[in-house]
């Protein structure tokens, strides 16, 4: 199984360990992993600011980089969702380009959904003996449907929780608000700084209140936002991307 | 309120200066969201019901002109006078002419977001006509000289002590009494007197039925009924999108509306007005005010399905922490953010950006409006149409973040290296919006790409 | 061009292609996605959901069936207690279906000092509701109606006879000075048979006693049309409202309610005004504290009259 690793730009620059954990985890599970070196950004920050029309170059590059693999896997629900929904190349660029983009869209997976739905992982050799709070990032949860949403009347399920429960020693804490947005929101985090920070503080407080030692999630951007707040509060609680926990050694 | 000079971010920042109050506001609305969840879970086929409601409304939008005509014909046959208003000004003029005809200069009005949208109260006030809002929450904000901050709970931003103050000043209740029971009783006496002495009553409309020409008004207080049944003239004002095809479709909407709004299984009163009572005049004003144009925007027309339950307000983490007034429009919250740009794209260019696009709104919406997707699409439209005075500003403010990504602004290839050079600098700026209340991660020794090259690539 | 024509023309130019009406609950195909443009529905994500809720298993855990189906008239006649467990009527509704304790510390919203029952039904109560088919079990419907009505601040009694209503009303409203009754057989309660051309004169009515058509189990609402109101204003302006319905006239939900309304209309002619009433007039506008008796009735009582009485010629 040829898997292309999609490492979002901010993970590449600020959280290389998340990329490494993702890579190691996939290899451990038997995938042949490739990292297309020219990858940069999915274009989401622009698009969410209303500049989707400027993301054409980005889309072309992404398509070139990621065409031809069985799967494309990224440790970020938000970036993956953006690709799934918005990676379009105009017919102006030719039929081949448009269908290549469609091909890429159909093969891109967020890490936990890839592990659950494609690799059908049932056990993991991992151990993380700590109290952990799971942050449900909105784009992964409500966009990619990684887990059931509290608004919806339907059966309960959660791909991240299912995976985390395979980790030895882990204790998942309950939260008062299971799936409230952390307020990161891409450019929202600076454009609406006051509300963004307040949302982040509230989310962090929920985890602290329930005794989390670590906050994890499938989206590093949300975790970066919450980490920024935790640091500023001089809290000892740390953030860990879910890939790091799933890849943690015995 | 002249908040137009501000944008949502600025008004929200203002609101956030009092953090305990933000917490209180957030928790009050979250509590209602929880009640909504519980109520929804008592209906096993909730999602199917939402789907059905959505499809009924889609049918309405695809037959709107036919349904309006059938409604009009049926209403006229029922003895009701039907008026059409192209815009807010015409709506206000129609209401005024009805009142003038009856030489009425004092009127009671139950909740109608449409009349807020049309600024009817201000208009009538200028014409020397006194309007008393009879919904308790609306009366509170009216006495306070403010617009409602929420379409279902107009004074949700007010603490009971503040309401006690307002009542003390205007209704003469004892200073310092902030007991809701007591204050509600005071309002009851105050408003019952108004009901008994006003000869004209204006109500909103929740649903209008094309088949029968009747309309339904839902209240918990009974104020719409008190007004309408005691007055000589009943004026009901409705946006043209309030139609539903047949009466039996109410079964779907009435099951959804109040559970979504407050978690109640139904409002106390769901009154079906069909014919004027003997000796009474009944008028219906059908108002367009931009709706027919909105209908022509394929990406956005679905927002006309809205039944104004406000579930999207209560669930919105941004609304809860920024307050209704920060949206500087009659209908605030997520739905207001996708309806308002249609009315005035420039003035409301900021609203589609007042969201994290978390998607909770679309999940609670009983008629399944894809609210967060429309927010995203409005951003594109606003930027492209050059109405982005605010939108652009937002993007500029967001530049630290945008540029911290190797984005399309800078050719993708060399962006990686560029990023490391720039980010720490911009970010350590004390005025930087990220850094003011958050830290940035310490830049690692090497990027993932560099690590990969060293360790994996052979 | 008139505004009317202008509006209609714009709409005609802008309205999308014809979309069909969906089937309603109870009709074939209900709940299935629309054929042309199936929305990417939330709630239908992949299938690793461990358990399907709402499947029959959830059934009513032994519906407390207050009385076996054919309540012998005599035996209940003396036992006309309010039925549902929480026999707390109106004002002292239990203190709010507290938000999950975890969700917020005391400070939280529902200002703790007021009897802030949410207007929502008691969370526990209707839980027993996703009954597989309550429609087939009249007792379950009655029980549910009562439970829900009490949760929204109303009171319900099952009574076997009109005389029982009279005595209960005397007990409940000993100080009532002005009672208007529109219920055949209850003329003795106060004024009856009159019309009130000026509805303002109804301002001081303490109790209005009216017969409604039916109740709705899922939400505690009663349907009443204009002819049964004496005056349209009466059920709203009276200080207290009493509705009488037949015990068997409880429908499961709003869909059945509207079928019933169609039938009633076919039999009795169209109404000019009609309403669902569910509980007393209420507001929670002040800090979400529920207060009963906003503008209208401070209490709403429903008497569920046993079938036999009707067969005996009342109504
Ligand atoms: S958009 Fe949906 S959730 Fe929001 S008020 Fe309208 S109907 Fe309710």
Q: Name the overall outline of chain A.
A: globular
Which range does the strand content of chain A fall in?
Answer: 5-15%
The CATH class of the largest domain in chain B is Alpha Beta
Number of DSSP-assigned strands of chain B: 10
Backbone CA Rg of chain A: 18 Å
Short description:
The complex is a heterotrimer of chains A (250), B (458) and C (315). Chain A is of the alpha/beta class and 250 residues long. Helices cover 48% and strands 12% of the residues of chain A.
Q: Could you walk me through the main structural features you see in this protein, from its secondary elements to its overall organization?
A:
The complex is a heterotrimer of chains A (250), B (458) and C (315). With 250 residues, chain A is α/β, with parallel strands linked by helices. Chain A folds into two domains: 117 residues, no CATH class; 116 residues, Rossmann fold. Helix content of chain A is 48%, strand content 12%. In chain A, helix 12 links the parallel strand 7 and strand 8. The mean pLDDT of chain A is 90. In chain B, helix 2 runs antiparallel to helix 12. Chain B has 458 residues and is of the alpha/beta class. Chain C is 21% helix and 15% strand. The N and C termini of chain C lie far apart (55 Å). Chains A and B meet through helix 1, helix 2, helix 3, helix 4 and helix 8 of A and helix 1, helix 2, helix 17, helix 18 and helix 19 of B. Bound molecules: iron/sulfur cluster (SF4). The site of iron/sulfur cluster has 14 residues of chain B, from helix 14.
Topology readout:
The complex is a heterotrimer of chains A (250), B (458) and C (315).
Chain A: E1 2-5, H1 9-14, H2 16-28, E2 32-34, H3 44-51, H4 56-66, E3 71-74, H5 77-86, H6 95-107, E4 108-110, H7 111-118, E5 131-135, H8 138-143, H9 159-164, E6 171-172, H10 188-191, H11 193-209, E7 214-217, H12 220-232, E8 238-241, H13 242-246
Parallel strand pairs in A: 1-2, 1-3, 3-4, 5-6, 5-7, 7-8
Helix pairs in contact in A: 4-6, 11-12
Chain B: H1 8-15, H2 19-41, H3 46-62, H4 64-77, E1 81-85, H5 88-101, E2 106-109, H6 113-117, H7 120-126, E3 130-133, H8 136-144, H9 160-171, H10 180-197, E4 200-203, E5 207-209, E6 215-219, H11 223-230, E7 233-239, E8 243-244, H12 250-261, E9 269-273, E10 281-287, H13 291-294, H14 311-315, H15 317-320, H16 333-343, H17 360-364, H18 371-384, H19 389-397, H20 399-403, H21 415-428, H22 448-455
Parallel strand pairs in B: 1-10, 2-3, 2-4, 4-7, 5-8, 7-10
Antiparallel strand pairs in B: 5-6, 6-9
Chain C: H1 3-14, H2 73-77, H3 138-151, E1 155-159, H4 162-172, E2 179-181, E3 207-211, E4 214-216, E5 221-225, H5 234-237, E6 240-246, E7 250-251, H6 254-268, E8 273-277, E9 282-283, E10 291-292, E11 299-305, H7 307-311
Parallel strand pairs in C: 1-11, 2-3, 3-6, 4-7, 6-11
Antiparallel strand pairs in C: 4-5, 5-8, 9-10
The structure holds iron/sulfur cluster.
The site of iron/sulfur cluster has 14 residues of chain B, from helix 14.
């Amino acid at each position: 199984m040829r898997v292309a690793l999609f490492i979002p730009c901010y993970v590449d620059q600020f959280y290389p360990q998340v990329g490494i954990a993702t890579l190691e985890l996939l290899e451990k599970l038997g995938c042949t992993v490739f990292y297309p070196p020219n990858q940069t950004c999915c274009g989401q920050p622009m698009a969410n600011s209303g500049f989707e029309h400027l993301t054409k170059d980005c889309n072309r590059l992404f398509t070139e980089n990621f065409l031809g693999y069985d799967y494309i896997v990224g440790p970020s629900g938000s970036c993956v969702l953006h690709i799934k929904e918005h990676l379009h190349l105009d017919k102006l660029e030719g039929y081949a380009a448009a269908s290549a983009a469609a091909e890429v869209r159909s093969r891109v997976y967020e890490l936990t959904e890839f592990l659950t739905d494609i690799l059908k992982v049932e056990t993991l050799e991992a151990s993380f003996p700590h109290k952990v709070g799971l942050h449900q990032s909105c784009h992964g949860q409500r966009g990619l449907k990684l887990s059931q949403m509290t608004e919806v009347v339907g059966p309960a399920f959660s791909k991240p929780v299912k995976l985390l429960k395979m980790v030895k020693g882990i204790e998942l804490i309950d939260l008062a608000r299971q799936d409230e947005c952390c307020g990161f929101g891409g450019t929202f985090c600076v454009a609406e700084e006051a509300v963004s920070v307040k949302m982040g503080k509230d989310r962090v407080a929920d985890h602290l209140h329930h005794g989390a030692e670590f906050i994890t999630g499938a989206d590093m951007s949300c975790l970066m936002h919450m980490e920024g707040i935790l640091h500023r509060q001089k809290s000892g609680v740390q953030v860990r991307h879910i890939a790091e926990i799933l890849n943690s050694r015995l | 309120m002249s908040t137009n000079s501000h944008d949502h971010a600025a008004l929200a920042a203002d609101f956030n200066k009092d953090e305990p109050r933000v917490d209180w506001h957030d928790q009050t609305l979250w509590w209602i969201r929880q009640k909504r969840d519980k109520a929804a879970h008592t209906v096993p086929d909730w999602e199917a019901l939402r789907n059905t409601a959505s499809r009924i409304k889609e049918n309405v939008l695809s037959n709107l002109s036919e349904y309006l005509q059938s409604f009009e014909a049926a209403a006229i046959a029922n003895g009701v006078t039907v008026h059409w208003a192209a815009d807010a000004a015409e709506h206000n003029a129609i209401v005024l002419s009805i009142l003038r005809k009856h030489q009425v200069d004092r009127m009671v009005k139950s909740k109608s977001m449409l009349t807020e949208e049309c600024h009817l109260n201000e208009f009538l006030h200028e014409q020397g006509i006194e309007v008393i809002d009879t919904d308790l929450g609306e009366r509170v904000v009216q006495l306070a000289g403010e617009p409602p901050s929420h379409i279902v709970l107009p004074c949700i931003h007010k603490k009971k002590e503040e309401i006690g103050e307002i009542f003390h000043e205007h209704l003469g209740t004892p200073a310092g009494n902030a007991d809701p029971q007591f204050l509600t009783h005071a309002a009851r006496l105050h408003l019952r007197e108004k009901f008994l002495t006003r000869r004209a009553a204006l109500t909103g409309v929740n649903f209008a039925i094309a088949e029968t020409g009747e309309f339904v008004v839902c209240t918990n207080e009974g104020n719409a009924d008190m007004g309408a049944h005691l007055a000589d003239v009943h004026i009901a004002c409705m946006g043209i999108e309030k139609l539903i095809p047949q009466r039996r479709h109410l079964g779907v909407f009435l099951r959804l509306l109040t559970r979504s709004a407050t978690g109640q299984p139904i409002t106390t009163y769901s009154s079906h007005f069909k014919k004027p009572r003997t000796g009474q005049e009944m008028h219906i004003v059908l108002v367009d005010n931009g709706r027919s144009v909105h209908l022509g925007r394929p990406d956005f027309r679905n927002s006309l399905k809205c039944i104004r339950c406000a579930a999207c307000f209560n669930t919105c983490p941004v609304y809860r922490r920024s307050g209704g007034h920060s949206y500087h429009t009659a209908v605030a919250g997520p739905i207001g953010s996708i309806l308002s740009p249609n009315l005035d794209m420039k003035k409301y260019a900021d609203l589609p950006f007042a969201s994290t696009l978390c998607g909770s709104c679309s999940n609670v919406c009983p008629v399944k409006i894809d609210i967060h997707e429309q927010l995203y699409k409005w951003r594109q439209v606003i930027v492209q149409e050059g109405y982005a005075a605010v939108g652009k500003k937002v993007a500029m403010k967001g530049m630290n973040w945008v540029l911290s990504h190797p984005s399309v602004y800078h050719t993708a290839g060399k962006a990686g290296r560029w990023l490391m050079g720039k980010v720490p600098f911009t970010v350590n700026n004390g005025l930087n919006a990220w850094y003011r209340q958050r830290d940035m991660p310490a830049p690692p020794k090497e990027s993932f790409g560099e690590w990969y090259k060293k360790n994996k690539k052979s | 061009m008139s505004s009317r024509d202008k509006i209609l023309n714009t709409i005609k130019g802008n309205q999308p292609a014809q979309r069909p009406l969906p089937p309603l609950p109870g009709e074939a195909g209900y709940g299935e996605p629309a054929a042309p443009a199936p929305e990417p529905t939330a709630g239908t994500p992949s299938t690793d959901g461990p358990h399907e809720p709402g499947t029959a298993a959830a059934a009513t855990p032994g519906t407390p069936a207050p009385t076996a189906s054919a309540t012998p008239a005599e035996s209940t006649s003396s036992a006309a207690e309010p039925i549902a467990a929480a026999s707390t009527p109106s004002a002292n509704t239990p203190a709010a279906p507290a938000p999950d304790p975890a969700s917020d510390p005391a400070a939280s919203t529902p200002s703790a000092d007021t009897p802030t029952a949410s207007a929502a039904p008691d969370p526990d109560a209707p839980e027993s509701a996703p009954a597989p088919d309550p429609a087939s079990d009249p007792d379950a419907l009655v029980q549910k109606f009562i439970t829900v009505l009490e949760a929204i601040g109303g009171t319900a009694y099952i009574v076997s006879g009109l005389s029982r209503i009279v005595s209960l009303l005397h007990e409940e409203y000993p100080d009532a000075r002005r009672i208007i009754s529109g219920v055949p057989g209850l003329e003795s309660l106060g004024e009856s048979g009159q019309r009130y051309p000026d509805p303002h004169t109804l301002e001081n009515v303490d109790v209005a006693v009216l017969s409604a058509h039916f109740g709705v189990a899922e939400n505690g609402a009663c349907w009443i049309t204009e002819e049964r109101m004496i005056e349209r204003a009466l059920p709203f302006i009276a200080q207290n409202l009493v509705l009488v319905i037949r015990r068997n006239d409880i429908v499961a939900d709003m869909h059945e309610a509207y079928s019933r309304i169609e039938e009633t209309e076919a039999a009795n002619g169209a109404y000019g005004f009609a309403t669902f009433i569910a509980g007393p007039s209420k507001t929670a506008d002040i800090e979400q504290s529920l207060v009963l008796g906003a503008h209208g009735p401070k209490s709403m009582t429903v008497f569920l009259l046993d079938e036999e009485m009707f067969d005996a010629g009342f109504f």
